[in-house]
Amino acid sequence: MKNGIYLIATPIGNIGDISFRAKEVLENAEVIACEDTRVTKKLLSLLQISPKEKTFFALHDHNESIMAQKIIEEASDKIVVYMSDAGSPLISDPGYKLAKAAREQNVYITTVPGACAAICALQISGLPSNAFMFCGFIPNKDKARIDFLSKNKEVDATLIFYERADRLLKTLEVMANVFGMREIAVAREITKLHEECVNGSANQLIEHFSDNPPKGEIVIVVSPPEEKEANPDDYIKELLNELKKNNLKAAVKNIVEKYKLNRNEVYKKALELKNG
Ligand code: SAM
Questions:
Q1: pLDDT number for residue 231
Q2: Which of these, 54, 73, 76, 242, could form a disulfide with 251 (CB 3.0-4.6 Å)?
Q3: Residue finishing a domain among 112, 147, 166
Q4: Is 214 touching ligand 1 by the criterion CB < 6 Å?
Q5: Which of 94, 112, 130 is the last residue of a domain?
Q6: What percent of the chain has pLDDT over 70?
Q7: Would the CB of 91 count as within 6 Å of ligand 1?
Q8: What is the pTM of this model?
Q9: CATH number assigned to the domain comprising residue 33
Q10: Is the minimum distance from the CB of 191 to ligand 1 under 6 angstroms?
Q11: Are residues 124 and 185 in the same domain?
Q12: CA 169, CA 2: separation in Å to the nearest integer?
């Protein structure tokens, strides 16, 4: 095994989700950097890996810049692991500054992939997975929450948010205003005993979670906005503009893609416009 930095993903609820490779790297690691050394030592004990002869560093949001340099120095002649308490490092967890510094200083860095709550939630949500945006934690202050959700409203992709159980209802109230009838999935306690995923509009989910107060860890997945409905006036004006800038074929293609219209109809219209 090569010396360098190994970013290891850990289970998000079910210990069985640790990979063979994660275990192998942890067995061989001389240095383990992690968020909370107690949590990591507990995981090692479950995996029957002795913490003896391993050096532990705590790396968290507040000391990441300083610790990143220390870890990079260790990685020149040792196998060094970075892992967060649960799930994939860097995803709403520390590790970005470490990875950036390692790339800049040409230190070997690799990933030992595994669970990530955002991806797990997307998989079970039943919402479109072809294009998605991970938005991280939703701010807690009222105005910041509204601004944050509104800012992402037009993104043409499924949106994924991390949220705390005690803030879910408040967030769903804002989501009802911002996202209207868009389908939302609330995935809770994924891979744990009480895993559930509830789908509905924000208002339906408010009703559900008012009757069943949510507990545990939560990911909210929001379906993409409806496709733009073609307003004939808009598209004809825009088609005229396109014809001024582009040839007929390119103009038609741009309009068909933007407004999801029938190609033959747009082509016919473009010819009429072109011929006055
Ligand atoms: N880096 C981790 C990952 O990629 O899975 C996420 C770390 S972030 C500090 C913790 C948040 O992830 C939780 O507040 C929750 O929103 C989400 N999360 C973690 N485990 C979860 C689970 N088992 N079920 C649902 N959400 C989970």
A1: 67
A2: 242
A3: 112
A4: no
A5: 112
A6: 97
A7: yes
A8: 0.83
A9: 3.40.1010.10
A10: yes
A11: yes
A12: 48
Burial (Cβ within 10 Å: 0-12, 13-18, ≥19) of residue 210: exposed
Q: Could you tell me if the CB of 219 is within 6 A of ligand 1?
A: yes
Helices 248-259, 263-274: crossing angle, 10 deg rounding: 140
Give the model's confidence band at 228: pLDDT under 50 very low, under 70 low, under 90 confident, else very high.
Answer: low
Instruction: Give the mean model confidence (pLDDT) for residues 139-159.
Output: 96
Query: How many CA atoms lie less than 13 Å away from 172 in the CB half-sphere?
Result: 29
Pairing of strands 158-164, 217-222: antiparallel
The reply to whether ligand 1 has any atom less than 6 angstroms from the CB of 167 is no
- Helix 168-179 to helix 202-211 angle (10° resolution) is 160
99 domain-assigned: yes
Structure-block tokens of residue 115: 């669970």
What is the pLDDT at residue 265? 87
Mean pLDDT value across residues 155-172: 97
**In contact, 124 and 221? CB cutoff 8 Å:** no
Q: Residue 182: what pLDDT?
A: 94
227 in a domain, yes or no? no
pLDDT of residue 237: 86
| Cβ–ligand 1 contact at 92 (below 6 Å) | yes
Note the Cα 59 to chain centre separation in Å: 22
pLDDT band, very low/low/confident/very high, at 255 (cuts 50, 70, 90): confident
Among 213, 148, 220, residue whose Cα is nearest residue 184: 220
CA of 218 to the centre of ligand 1 (A): 7
Atom of ligand 1 nearest to the CA of 89: 1
pLDDT of residue 122: 98
Give, for ligand 1, the residue of 198, 217, 221 to mutate: max count of ligand atoms closer than 8 Å to Cβ. 217
